[in-house]
Amino acid sequence: MDELNKTAETESSCHATSERRSHHSPEVKKNLTSRLNRIEGQIRGIKGMIDKDTYCDDVITQISAVQSALNSVSKILLEGHLKHCVVERVQEGDEEVVDELLTTIKRLMK
Amino acid sequence: MDELNKTAETESSCHATSERRSHHSPEVKKNLTSRLNRIEGQIRGIKGMIDKDTYCDDVITQISAVQSALNSVSKILLEGHLKHCVVERVQEGDEEVVDELLTTIKRLMK
Amino acid sequence: MDELNKTAETESSCHATSERRSHHSPEVKKNLTSRLNRIEGQIRGIKGMIDKDTYCDDVITQISAVQSALNSVSKILLEGHLKHCVVERVQEGDEEVVDELLTTIKRLMK
Amino acid sequence: MDELNKTAETESSCHATSERRSHHSPEVKKNLTSRLNRIEGQIRGIKGMIDKDTYCDDVITQISAVQSALNSVSKILLEGHLKHCVVERVQEGDEEVVDELLTTIKRLMK
């Protein structure tokens, strides 16, 4: 897919009920990707810790760090979603997006 | 390191203050490693979702699944730690392990 | 304040920056109040458990139940806020409400 | 029940399977009770906020404060439980207490 088409598709993404898409800016995508690369490295690190019988407390500390890092990724995703998709769809009178958002927030609160 | 030495070291691991080690059975280590491999795959999947502009809600759902999977890993680690290290050290009269455990639990509760 | 004035004030509440108000229906308010009454009773029950040296595990179980009940109250409040205030203000072009909402969600996710 | 008998019962509480009791010092009990009194007051405050249509965000902030305060109560209870009951029973060779503790911790981690 060429860059132009991709942008066009992205712009209309919020109200295409058939196939919704997210629409983060290149900066946000780069930020998210580098965070996820770091998290992937941390998971590999934890596997190494298990393999080398690292003390349980230290492994749990490392898992907590990954959990926090994943929480940050969720918050960035949610911010993009709210500021673009939710605002746009609410302004168009589509209130179904609010129920959807509520489900997502409840999942994050559990 | 040969298997015999490894076992010997493992057995004495709980009270070696110089360099504490964990001491999961081969079955538990295999279980933890396969869980972490699956988590690593999920993280790579989430990167792919970001790259393909997957709808935000679906990405957050996937992140929640990884958080639950990491929670399970923490619980397995903690169970092994409690049933071996904590019990052994408390029976030897070492109560410092209890403060350490409390710190770990507080980290998990945050 | 008479009921008529109260309603009038409530209806205009979402865009009064000087003094924002919530605007739950009488049914929702009754629901929230009865949940909070029950929670207050549970707290008193927990005080009684402490006083009578009830076993720690049972007290913690009871505290967890209160935490879940408070979570439900937060979700009901958030649902009302989203469906009324946020939708109304976004439709009026006020996007500041989205930053505010994000702060609230982050507080609930912590 | 007179104070003497109460103390006697408390001291033997950790290994009485028939009716387990907690055994916090008078200072800890006073601390817990005053925390719970404050929490009860906060709950009443939240009811008042609902009644007066206080802005949703402010109510949620107040609920979060109560959740943190309840978490602190759980941590104090757990610390007492670990340092007295768990240590005592493990030293007596009763390892069932460890499974019980694990269940409690998992409840706190949920």
Question: Helix coverage percent of residues of chain A?
Answer: over 70%
Q: And the CATH topology of chain A? A: Methane Monooxygenase Hydroxylase, Chain G, domain 1
Order of helices and strands of chain A: HHHH
**Number of DSSP E strands of chain A:** 0
How far apart, in Å, are the first and last alpha carbons of chain A? Answer: 38 Å
Structural class computed from helices and strand pairing of chain A: mainly alpha
Number of domains of chain A: 1
Number of helices of chain A: 4
In the CATH hierarchy, the architecture of chain A is Up-down Bundle
Query: Which chains share the greatest interface?
Result: A-B, 47 and 47 residues
User: Can you tell me the residue ranges of chain A where pLDDT is under 50 for at least 5 consecutive residues?
Assistant: 1-12
Oligomer: homotetramer
Identify the CATH class of chain A.
Mainly Alpha
Shape type of chain A: elongated
Major beta sheet summary of chain A: none
Rg of chain A: 18 Å
Mean pLDDT of chain A: 84
Q: Which strand-content bin applies to the residues of chain A?
A: under 5%
What is the name of the CATH superfamily of chain A? Metal-sensitive repressor, helix protomer
Features:
mainly alpha; Methane Monooxygenase Hydroxylase, Chain G, domain 1; 4 helices; 77% helix
What does the model show?
Four copies of one chain form a homotetramer. By secondary structure, chain A is mainly alpha-helical. Chain A has one domain (23-109): Metal-sensitive repressor, helix protomer (Methane Monooxygenase Hydroxylase, Chain G, domain 1), CATH 1.20.58. Chain A is built from four helices and no strands. Chain A has helices at residues 3-11, 26-51, 56-91, 96-109. The longest helix of chain A is centred in the last third of the chain and has 36 residues, at 56-91. Chain A starts with a helix and ends with a helix. Chains in contact: A-B, A-C, B-D, C-D. At the A-B interface, helix 2, helix 3 and helix 4 of A face helix 2, helix 3 and helix 4 of B.
